[in-house]
Every structure is written in C-alpha cells, then in structure tokens.
Design brief:
four-stranded mixed β-sheet, alpha+beta, about 200 residues, 2,3-Dihydroxybiphenyl 1,2-Dioxygenase, domain 1, about 15% helix, 14 strands, 3 domains
C-alpha cells in the first residue's frame, strides 16, 4: 500500500505554519482513503486525502494541495444575545423563560438551555435587529405560547405573515413558528417541526 511522504509538497501557507510559525509534519495516510466534504456552495464532493496533519483535523486537497478543515473541532455551540441591562435580562431569561442561571458579572449573564450555554452579553448601546437572534425547537408550540402569555409575554405579529389568534405562523414546510421579544427587543422564537410524513 502506498503511503504519502510526510513532508513532500507541504503547503507554503499551511494553517499551522501561519499560526505556530513552524513547519508541522504531516502524518502518512494511505492513498485511496476517500472522505466526503462540501464545497463553498454546499455541494457534496469527494476528495482523495493524501496528507493529513498529525496535530489536527486538517487535510490537503488532492487537486491543489490546499489545506481545508475536515470537520468542526467541537459540537458544543455557545449562543450569544446582547443586553443593555443584565439585571433586567436575568429576570426575563431566568424567571420568565426558566433557563438555568450559571453566573453573572459586569460583562455577561451566563445561562443554560438544556446542554446549550447562552451568554447574554452587556452591550450598553445595544440596538436590536429585526430578525431572530435566538430560538428553541419545542414539542408543544401552543402550550409554550400559552405559558408565555400567562407570564405576560405576547407573541410578535408581522403583517407579511398569516398568523393565527395566538400569533403562530405555519411555514410552507408545515413547521409552526411563534416569535416574541426579550426586554431589549431581541427577536426570539419557538418553533415546532412538522410531523414526519
């Protein structure tokens, strides 16, 4: 079985060389090992991985010797939301939405939504944007909307969507969505996927 040379054709602009300032050796990978990847247009492509870094999940493209990242290094996302008043945000996210409080200092309020950490970051001059910045997928959208209403949080209505009396919109896919806002005007959402057919 042919094995790639460790140092042959190492790219001049290797990511590790740029960051660490040293030439990182490549481990040998059997020629013929195929792995799928997606190009910039998210089309599935297959490349022949010939050389791979020993330190991380980088591989060299078989066509041009260009390094690309094989996979994300983590599957633990962290969500961020801006706030002009952390105490006010704590009341909303912890007392109203019921998220688990983790910590708070002058810079941010840290909470958890299940396994996902959320940092509500203090931004004194925060101006909310018109699109959704944070959302949750739920099993019972009508129940969650009713619970919000009982806590004094109304759903947001948009003139370009046909929403029911509870403010729930049904997407063409059959998914159901309801939007609401936090005290800073950040757009949040609950969504319920359409039943599997």
């Amino acid at each position: 079985m042919d094995i790639a040379d460790r140092d042959r054709d190492h790219p001049r602009r290797c990511p590790h060389q740029l960051v660490l300032g040293v030439l990182v050796p490549l481990e040998g990978v059997p020629i013929g090992e195929w792995e799928p990847r997606r190009d910039d247009r998210r089309r599935a492509v297959v490349r022949l991985s010939v050389w791979r870094h020993a330190l991380s999940q980088y591989a060299l493209d078989d066509i041009g010797g260009t390094p690309y990242r094989r996979a994300m290094q983590t599957e633990r996302p962290v969500a961020f939301v801006a706030s002009g008043d952390l105490e006010r945000s704590r009341t909303f996210y912890v007392d109203v939405l019921g998220l688990e409080p983790v910590s708070m200092d002058e810079f941010a309020l840290a909470v958890r939504a299940g396994p996902v950490p959320i940092r509500v970051t203090h931004v004194p001059d925060h101006a909310p944007v018109a699109f959704t910045v944070l959302g949750w997928e739920v099993d019972d959208l009508a129940g969650e909307v009713a619970a919000l209403a009982a806590r004094g949080v109304a759903t947001t209505r948009y003139p370009w969507f046909e929403q029911d009396d509870d403010g729930i919109w049904i997407a063409p896919s059959g998914d159901r969505v309801a939007w609401f806002a936090d005290p800073d005007g950040n757009v949040l959402s609950f969504s319920q996927p359409a039943p599997a057919s």
